[in-house]
Amino acid sequence: MIVATAPYAAACAALHAAVFPVGEAWNTAVFAELLASPAVLALIEEGGGLVLIRRAADEAEILTLGTEPARRRQGVARRLLSAALEWAATSGATQVFLEVAESNAAARALYAALGFKPCGRRPSYYGDGADALILRLALQAAAPGTG
Asked: Homologous superfamily of 2-138 in CATH?
């Protein structure tokens, strides 16, 4: 697993484009801006996936998590997310939030297995009109990497 810093912005953008539909992928400039922040951690599993997490005070947010289609169902997302949660806990976060498409059953199952619980909904949040579920993990209640 690689900690992605500013020089990895283009690689992150290419990986994001391989994971997300056209129009939803972030470009190099977006990644460059995020990777310049000391409050953001980006991790890449070479040839497989990436996660970005941002901490603000005692909260953290998973900004994006994705696995290349050929590497799905092989534990890539779980490893990336577990590492991000560990970073959040050690950097002082007590809770982590994320958004997931209500229709994304595989992602929702992963998040539930790690202890995330629904705490809200954003109607018609995604470009296709799908709702986003807001999930929360209390880091004191569920140790990162378990589930």
From this structure: Gcn5-related N-acetyltransferase (GNAT) (3.40.630.30)
Among candidate residues 45, 46, 59, 111, the one labeled active-site is: 111
Q: Which of 59, 61, 99, 125 is catalytic?
A: 99
Instruction: For residue 126, indicate whether it is catalytic.
Output: no
pTM of the model: 0.83
pLDDT, one tens digit per residue, over 90-127 is 988 999 999 998 888 888 999 999 999 999 899 888 87
pLDDT in tens, 20-77: 877 788 889 999 999 999 899 999 887 689 999 999 989 999 999 988 877 788 788 8
Query: How would DSSP label each residue in 45-85?
Result: ETTTEEEEEEEETTEEEEEEEEE-GGGTTTTHHHHHHHHHH
User: Would residue 111 show up in a list of annotated catalytic residues for this protein?
Assistant: yes
